[in-house]
Every structure is written in structure tokens, then in C-alpha cells.
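The data are quoted verbatim here:
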Amino acid sequence: MDVAGRVPRLRAGLEEAGCDAALITRVVNVRYLSGFTGSAGMLLVLPDELHFVTDGRYGDQAAEELGRAGVDAAVHVGRTMPEQRSHVVERVRAIARLGLEAEAVTWAQHRRFVTEWFPELELVPTEDLVEGLRRVKDDGEVDRMAAAAAVGDGALATCRSMLAEGVTEADFAVALDFDMRRGSDGPSFETIVASGPNGAKPHHRPTDRRIEAGELVVVDFGAQVDGYCSDMTRTFSVGEPSPTARRMAEVVTQSQQAGVAAVAGGVRAQAVDEACRSVIQDAGWADAFLHSTGHGVGLEIHEAPRVASTSTDILEPGYVVTVEPGVYLPEHGGVRIEDTVVVTSEGCRALTNAPKDLILT
């Protein structure tokens, strides 16, 4: 990954954001810009200097990780917050306007910044400063997400037969999570296993309910490799499904195929949602599609862009998004099918490749 090239691109956007420098405090954004994987750190981006500030736990780790990423930054360690504050304050005396991440800074933090840290500076709330850069993935990022997706594909292939053995939702989730840990950092989010009527709850949490013959089972999961996430949903029928369940699966399959076919650089994200939603609406289940069609994926399982009816985003090559329509009927359960895809100039490429056959045999 070209981690070292990210701070220069950030600097190029500072003037348009109305600031002379930026203090990056959101940990995931610090990681994106520096390669640091710890849980505590700040990155001060000045016009000609880069300073990384952390606590006593991470001094050596930060120096090693920034060095491996090729990021030229001075690393400062403060054992207490006043010490960390002094490292930052000493280095902003020559600037007038300091950008802060509006969506990351809490009300309490802002009060401290105004009264204790930077009383003489103009503090500028910035939006999408780093997140805007994160939208387009480079080849190294896509490779990591493809590796995470392959881990998920493999884990499902290993574990799927358990669904027909009368296991509980929770037992299957544990087995899937354990298998994913063999080749990844672990699950990218809490695995969803929703059987029977629980399938009508899109974000159901696995319980001790046993999976029975003739039921639909929604399995939504992902792995994480080097911080980058995958996301996939498959729906299975344990044995022969009811006519309604089969029809639900057919409609959602057609909807998902229509959505994936609509993805391409220059396409409105809203149009992808419309492609999925129209198929389900024509089937008479518009009110049973309870969520948006998809979302961006990267260092976070949910990030920009949004693939929704209210989205104003335009897809660009290098974006990585999900396409995941669903139909949820309490008396029958739920069906959701999801792939993570990389947007290209002419279409998209799926990273998740597990089979989508409905019936477990």
C-alpha cells in the first residue's frame, strides 16, 4: 500500500478546507495516514512537518510501524495527557487555523481544545478530509480485502454442513468465527446467524435457538486482514423450502444480480439502490426491504459511500461497496444476499465468491 503518499494528498486539501494544518485524532484515520495499528495516537499534519504523538505504551511500536510504512514523521511520547498536549501545542505556534475532525471530536474534547490546548488558534471543523481519501482504494488495499473475502469464503465452505446438523445459531457463529481466525485477524464484525423467524430481523444476534429442517438461515459475516474488512451474506434452506421461501430467494437473487449489474464508475449510488429495490417492489414486497442496498467497506465495515435511496454519492473506480438487498417476512423468515465488489470503470469485480445455492444438501 502507498501509505506514505497519503499525507501529501491530505495536505493538498487543507487550503480548500480552510485550515493551515490538521490534527487527526480519529484512530482509524491515524492508521490510514501513518500505518499505526495501536489504539492511542494523534497525527499533527503541518505544511512541511508531520508529528505523531502517543502515550508510553506505543512509542516503539509507532516508530516501527511508521518506519515500515515509509512515513517520515517525528514520534513523540507523552506518558500523561498534559505531556502529549505540550508536544502538540509547541508545534502549532506558527499557524493560525487548525483543522479538527468534526465527526470525531466530542463536545468535551472541543471544550478542552478551545480552553486548554489552542486558545489562540482558530479551530476549523473539517468534514470528509481523510474519509474522502479513503473512498478510493489502492491495489494494496484491495488485495487485503480480497484476502479477507477469501478467508470468509473458505470458512463458510468448511462450516456450512453444520447447518443441517441441528446446531444452534450461536454454535454455528462460533465455528465460523474460529475458522476465520486461522487466516485473518478475526471477524470484521459480529457474525449474524438468523434462523427461522429470527431471519426477519436484519441484524439479529445469534442465540441458542436450534436450526430446524425446512427453515431459512441468514448468515452475514466477514473477516479482517491487516485491518481491512470483508462482508458477505448468504441465505440457506435446511432441506426443501416452502413455496414462499423459495420465491423470496428467487426475488432477492434477481434483485442482487440487478444491483451488481448496475455498479460502475460514474453511476449514482442511488441508481444501484433503485435497481435492487425495483425488482423487490415488482414482486409485491417493497415494504419488506427494510434497509438500504449497501455501503462502503475498507478499514471499517461501514464507511463511505452510502448505497441508498437518499444517497448523493457517485461511484468511482476503486470504491469498494456492498450490494445486499433483502426481504423479511416474520411468518417466513428472511433472505439476504450480499457481495462486496470493487468498482471499475466499466462495472465491478466481486471479492466475495462463495456459492449462492439455496438448498443445503
Q: What stands out?
A: Residues 139-159 form the longest helix (21 residues). The radius of gyration is 23 Å.
